[in-house]
């Protein structure tokens, strides 16, 4: 029977560790079995210091999450990129690499929720990149076991694949470059981008950007990063210009 939030806090209340409700709010997923997310945040150093309490480290969940992340990423690239196998392999490596997972961990403030042994705590384990990356994978494994592949995919798409265009430059159509080339066909034309709105919490911002030619709006787009929103705005501008059949003047 899953432990309740209060039981978890009773066990770890003296630690700076897992606050299940707070972390669920950050990732937008509510666990049926809270012990899974507790385990995903538990470093082996903490588990070793509490062997008698039945505490387990995240290592097995990390193993599972790593496989799921690789599969979901490969599927995403297959469906959304037309590149050859070798290029797809490089793109996947860029997405699942430690540096990118650390970026995700920092966005989710995972360091605040870790359960570490005394030695690991003193040696700044909360900031250790290898630990942060491992816990992102363990979280994926926990979500998969709790809610299935669809929920795991949602998490991966929302927090990891959302910036795939930035992580894999040149892997998809570059609308900004196409629009720039079109604008420059007319002498003295200038292209710029302007942030017009942003919404959502800090860990899941949505940006809205307008493309401007000579200060006049020609397209608008949204994205989870400013670069993604600029690409969307450029795409919208190209569609509008194409439908009008005119060259910008």
Short descriptors:
249 residues; mainly alpha; Ribonuclease iii, N-terminal Endonuclease Domain, Chain A; Double Stranded RNA Binding Domain; 2 domains; three-stranded antiparallel beta sheet; 3 strands; 56% helix; disordered N terminus
Please give a structural write-up.
This protein is 56% helix and 10% strand. With 249 residues, the protein is mainly alpha-helical. It has two domains: 163 residues, Ribonuclease iii, N-terminal Endonuclease Domain, Chain A (Orthogonal Bundle), CATH 1.10.1520.10; 70 residues, Double Stranded RNA Binding Domain. A three-stranded antiparallel beta sheet has the order 1-2-3. α3 packs antiparallel against α9. It starts with a helix and ends in a 5-residue tail after the last helix. 33% of the residues are buried. The N terminus is likely disordered.
Number of strands: 3
Query: Please, what is the average pLDDT?
Result: 83
CATH architecture of the largest domain: Orthogonal Bundle
Poorly predicted regions: 1-17
The tally of domains stands at 2
Report the biggest beta sheet as strand number plus sense, adding barrel if it closes.
3 strands, antiparallel
Q: Specify the CATH class of the largest domain.
A: Mainly Alpha
Binned strand content: 5-15%
């Amino acid at each position: 029977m899953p432990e309740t939030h209060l039981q978890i806090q009773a066990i770890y209340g003296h630690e700076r560790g897992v606050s299940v409700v707070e972390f669920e709010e950050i990732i937008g997923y509510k666990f049926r079995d809270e012990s899974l997310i507790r385990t995903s945040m538990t470093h082996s150093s903490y588990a070793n210091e509490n062997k008698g309490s039945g505490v387990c480290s995240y290592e097995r969940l990390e193993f599972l999450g790593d496989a799921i992340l690789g599969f979901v990423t490969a599927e995403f690239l297959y469906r959304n990129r037309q590149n050859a196998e070798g290029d797809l392999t490089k793109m996947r490596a860029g997405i699942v690499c430690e540096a990118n997972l650390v970026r995700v961990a920092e966005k989710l403030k995972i360091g605040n929720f870790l359960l570490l042994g005394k030695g690991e705590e003193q040696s700044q384990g909360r900031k250790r990149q290898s630990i942060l990356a491992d816990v992102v994978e363990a979280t994926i494994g926990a979500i998969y076991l709790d809610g299935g592949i669809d929920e795991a995919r949602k998490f991966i798409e929302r927090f990891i694949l959302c910036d795939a265009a930035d992580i894999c430059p040149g892997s998809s159509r570059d609308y900004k470059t196409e629009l720039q080339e079109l604008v420059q066909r007319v002498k003295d034309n200038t292209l710029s981008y302007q942030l017009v709105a942003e919404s959502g919490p800090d860990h899941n911002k949505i940006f809205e950007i307008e493309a401007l030619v000579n200060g006049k709006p020609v397209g608008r787009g949204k994205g989870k990063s400013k670069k993604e929103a600029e690409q969307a705005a450029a795409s919208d501008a190209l569609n509008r210009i194409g439908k009008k059949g005119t060259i910008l003047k």
